Model the fold of this input.
Amino acid sequence: MSFETFNLHPALLRAVAEAGYTVPTPIQARAIPLALAGHDLQAAAQTGTGKTAAFALPILQRLDAAVSEPRGPRAPRALVLVPTRELAAQVAESFQDLGRHLKQRGVLIFGGVGPKPQVKALAEGVDIIVATPGRLLDHLQLRLVDLSRIEMLVLDEADRMLDMGFIRPIRKLIAALPKQRQNLLFSATFSNEIRELARGILRDPQSIDIAPRNTPVELIDHRVYHVDTAQKHPLLTRILNDGGNRQSLVFTRTKHGANRLAERLARDGLSCAAIHGNKSQGARTRALEEFKQGKIQVLVATDIAARGLDIEELPHVVNFELPHVPEDYVHRIGRTGRAGRSGEAVSLVSRDERDRLRAIEKMLGRTIPVAA
Ligand code: AMP
Done:
């Protein structure tokens, strides 16, 4: 199957080819024709499956039906809500890449930065908004954005948005949208809460369930170290040093833990940075860029900050602490071994985390070997 079969605008096909996509991923193959046909969608798909293009291409195709002028006041027609600033930036970048030969204008809206450039962009007129719910609601309440002409709504990583307590802003934003619209909901997991949200928003949706592109069980080498909490830090330093210059993404459960660990690793002589929700947007973007450019060897992250990070060629993830929710184990290592590359996931497990390990093994359907 190729992208040509979707009957996309030639300008989109050109951008797809330039992005290096030759074959649609499973979620794209399923979602794009349904979305183009105007259906609402409820899709179970994780980061790394190509889900962004699965909604960005149909949106760009639909908006192009009425090519917009480069400037001039107009109301936005597509709204994408995402949980984190990082994901917002990545989704906006995908729209920019895929829409590069079209005339649509987009705006990126999130908190933690000054509102002025966003307000100016909104006033100049945009077609697509990619936003985190809180800041967009601020703009709405100040009447700085008009959502009355939205034709397409995407809720991306809906489960994470609920985890982060965005349900109220989401409901308020949706109340400002026209009733007649297309809704696409993407979520890695489908809890009862998500199903309820979906029921309230989607109209006669088509359901799509896509396994992660790289099933971690198959492509990634998992290992567990059983270790006392006090010994985790020295063991981690040894593992990182033994890896030579290999880059690692290290997960902690809390922001405080991420900071403290990054400081300790820095004292051990490792180049590292922490990335979590309490850091300013500038600091987070800088740390991520430096990590991507290879200037930083170790990035210490919390689950929420790392959600949606698009890091290519990352061979090594370390769980300094196991996540509370077993699915987060898959999200964490979901960013290793992308596009068929194999990766390695190492977990440091203390006695009080054994139950969590068992829950993860149950979810994976196999036991994780203990490192020698
Ligand atoms: P996503 O799940 O949307 O975060 O996408 C994960 C990664 O896959 C991104 O780096 C995309 O650029 C890439 N990608 C998306 N679609 C394709 C495709 N059809 N072929 C190759 N790579 C893709």
Remarks:
- The first helix runs from residue 10 to 18.
